[in-house]
Structure formats: C-alpha cells, structure tokens
Amino acid sequence: MSRRASLWALMFGNLAIGTGVMIVAGVLSELAADLQISPPVAGQLISAAAIVMALGAPIAAAATSGFDRRLLLALTLAWYALGLIASAFATTFPQLLGIRMVTVISAAIFTPQAAATAALLAPPDERGRAMAFTFLGWSIASVFGVPVGSWLSGAFGWRIAFVVTGLLAGVGSVAVIATLPAGLRVQRLSLKSWVDVARHPLLPRVLFVTVLMASGQFGVFAFIAPYLLWLVEADANGRAVALAWFGAFGLWGNVLVARRIDKLGPDRAVQLTLTAVLVGVALLPAGRGGILLAALALAVWGSGLFGSNSSQQVRLAAIAPPLASGSIALNTSAIYLGQAIGTAAGGLVYARAGIDYLSWFGTALIALALALSMTVSRRRKQKGPVA
User: Fold this and answer.
1) Predicted confidence band at 386 (pLDDT cuts at 50, 70, 90)?
2) CB burial class (10 A; 0-12, 13-18, 19+) of residue 238?
3) Distance of CA 343 to the CA centre of its chain
4) 285-343: per-residue pLDDT in tens?
5) Is 187 exposed, middle or buried (0-12, 13-18, 19+ CB in 10 A)?
6) Cβ neighbour number for residue 14 with a 10 Å cutoff
7) What is the Cα Rg of the chain in Å?
8) CA 372 remoteness from chain centre
9) Residue 379: HSE in the Cβ half-sphere, 13 Å Cα cutoff
10) Scanning 72, 120, 203, 231, which has its CA 20 to 30 A from the CA of 322?
11) Contact between 155 and 33 (Cβ < 8 Å)
C-alpha cells in the first residue's frame, strides 16, 4: 500500500477517536435526562475520561514503544469500538463512567502514536504536513461525527449514537491493518527521554500552553448542548446544525494549517490559530443578540480549534526532534489534562455562577495560553532552535 493510503487510514482513525471523545458533549442533555442526573454531573464523564487519557498517554507511549505500529494502532481502534458499543448498554451512571474510563485508554494511545507513525512514513521535509494531516480526523469528527451523533441522540437516543461511533472505530481498525506496512517501530522511550523532556528549556512551556488552551475551550465546549440552548434556544436539530457549522470551520482551519505549516512555521501557526480561538470564545455571549452573531463566534473559534492542536504537535517535533515521540505523547496528555481541568472548573462556574459566565472563564485561560505561547516564540527567535 502507498504512503498516501496509510496516512488516510491514520486520519480516519483519528476521526473515530475524535468522535468518540467529543460525542459526550453533543449528547449531554439526552444522556443526563435518561440517566436522571444533572448536566454538570454528566460532564464528569468528560473530566474523568480526560484524566485517564492524560495519565495514560505517556505511560502507554513508554509501554508500547517497541510494538509494531500497524498492530498496535489496529488493536487500539478495535478496543475503542468494543468499549463504545458496551457503553450503550450501561444502565446507570457509575456503570457508564467505569466503561468510559476503560474505553478511552485507546484514545490516549492512538492520537500521539498516529502522529509519530506519520512522521516515520514521510520524508523529512514533509513530516510537519503529514503529522498535521493525521489530525484532520479530529476536525472531520467535529463536522461529521459529533453533529451526526447529536442528531442521532435527539432522534433515537444517545445509546444509538454510541453504537454508531463504535462501528466507525471498527472500520478504522480494518483500514489501518489494510494499509500500514508491517515492521514500523519508533525509538524506544527510556526514563532518560522523559527526564530530557522535563529539563528542556522550552518543551515544558509549550506543553503548558496546550493545558491552558484546552482548559479554556473545554470550559465551554463540555457544556455546549445546554450552552447553545441558552445562547440561541437550539433544540437537538439546531444543535446538530450549529456543531456542523462549528466543525466545518475547524476542518477548514486545520486543512489550511496542514498545507501551510511547513512554510509558515509552527510558532506563527500556533499564534494565529490561538488568536482565532480567543476571539471566537470571547464573542460567544454576543450571540444572545442574534443567530448571526452566534454563528460568527462559532466560525472564528472553530477556525483555530484543531489547527492550534496540530500546530503544537509540529512545534514540539521541530524544537527537539529526538524527543518528539515522548513530547507528542505528553502533548496529548496536556490536551486531556486541560479537558479535565476545563470541564471540572467549567462545571463549577456553571453550577454556581451560571451558564452565561462560561465564555468569560474560557476567554481568560485562552488569553494566558496565547501570552505564554508568544514568550516561547520570542525565546526561539533570540536563541534559535534548541534541540
């Protein structure tokens, strides 16, 4: 099989992973009503799963570093498929929470290792583009997977949405087996690799940017179903349309980053995409004045959403190529840690101050992420690349 087919399979796998991770936000209202819990309590599915993924990504990266990439990634997607389908049969919230936490171990493995595998497949001058391409799956998930899941939840119940997502992961597993060459392996990760990442003058700062930007975004996105109801009175169908609109701009932004990042440079790409996220989230409350303003805010936010994540991955690899496998795994942990922090803190804001304060909470954290990111860029310009 060709390198192109392999990259498409990895991208499709991320489509399944991204849909499975984000689907809870899209079905939160129906899930909470069915299990007779409040939306903030249901949001614990996101924060608890995010903690598992944050802890699991570096551990899994070290434990599986000697494994054949083809077999590892295919089995990971198969496990994900089984877990999502099993979730649909949970009868209580504790059952669903337990299944969810076991299922998302797959997400902790797949996304960073798919990026590392893409780097193995591509020539040196195309690695940034190849890595960003695999992350397009998350963008497509926001356009296709999450809105369709939201619509299925409104029409047939949240359980059907989980089953369909599980079948999507099963298809991804078959695609990986069919297209990736056997024998691909990354450099084994030792304890020294993690120490080197921690002691690096720039890598920890870049990872903290990821934590802050994910926290700010998930402080709002985790509660997007009730937020859209408050913002524009969106029912399940309206929510599906809004999420598809949001995701379409996420896909457009990430495609643009994937095409331009090798010429633009990862530092500049991060700054541009984070600025879009900041402006979009800050504009959200203006949507109470009309649907057009809400649509504009979602479009601007979406245009930077996934591009910022893929730019961060390429940035880490560019700063210290020998440490890329470990730093990208830790970046995945940072994303999920940010999701956990943002969801938990956003739930407190929602419960105690009101849903209308979520945007301001998110805006503050994203502004901090942008400020820190700019200091990293200035340091790189002053000192040059630090490997």
Assistant:
1) low
2) middle
3) 14
4) 998 868 899 999 999 999 998 789 888 988 998 888 878 777 887 888 898 889 889 98
5) middle
6) 26
7) 19
8) 20
9) 14
10) 72
11) no
Residue with tokens 């919230």, as numbered in its chain: 93
> Is the C-alpha dihedral spanning 332, 52, 343, 150 positive or negative?
positive
Characterize 30-63 residue by residue with b for buried, 16 or more Cβ atoms within 10 angstroms of its Cβ, and e for exposed. bbbebbebebbebbbbbbbbbbbbbbbbbebbbe
Helix (H) or strand (E) holding 197: helix 191-199
CB 360 within 8 A of CB 345: no
Whole-number Cα distances in Å, 308 to 251, 272, 344: 12, 8, 22
For the chain, the straight-line distance linking the first and the last C-alpha, in angstroms and rounded, comes to 34
Q: How many CA atoms lie within 13 A of 195 on its CB side?
A: 3
CA 215 to each of CA 11, 149, 279, 305: distance values in angstroms, whole numbers, following the listed order: 24, 23, 16, 12
159/34 Cα distance (integer angstroms):
10
pLDDT at 359: 94
Q: 290: alpha, beta or left, given left = phi > 0 and alpha = psi -120 to 50?
A: left
CA distance 21 to 24: 7
Phi/psi of residue 250, each to 5°? -65, -40
Which among 188, 187, 177, 186 is positioned nearest to 70, based on CA atoms? 177
387: helix, coil or strand?
coil
Place of tokens 């799963």: 49
- List the domains of the chain with CATH numbers: 3-383 (1.20.1250.20)
* 94, burial (CB in 10 Å: exposed 0-12, middle 13-18, buried 19+): exposed
Residue 126, CB half-sphere, CA atoms under 13 Å: how many?
Answer: 11
Closest CA to 217 of 114, 95, 307, 102: 307
Q: What are the backbone dihedrals phi and psi of residue 348, each rounded to the nearest 5 degrees, phi first?
A: -65, -40
Cβ neighbours of residue 114 closer than 8 Å, sequence gap 6 or more: 10, 13, 14, 73, 134
pLDDT tens-place string over residues 207-247: 999 999 999 998 998 888 889 888 888 887 888 888 889 88
